[in-house]
Amino acid sequence: MERVVILTDDRMAEARQVRDGLIGRGWRVETVPKLVCLWDEAALSNWAEPFADAIAAVIHPAPEPILGSVEAVSEADWKRAADEGPMAAWCVTKVFCERMKAGGGSMIYLNSIHAEKPVGHGALFSMGCAAAQMLAKEAAQDYVEFGVRAFFIQKGITATDPDGRSPVSGVYCGVELRYPTRKLPEEGYLDELVAFLLTPGAAPLNGGDLMADGGMTQYYTHRRRVEGRPYYDWPK
Question: How is the chain split into domains, by residue range?
Answer without folding.
Answer: 4-212
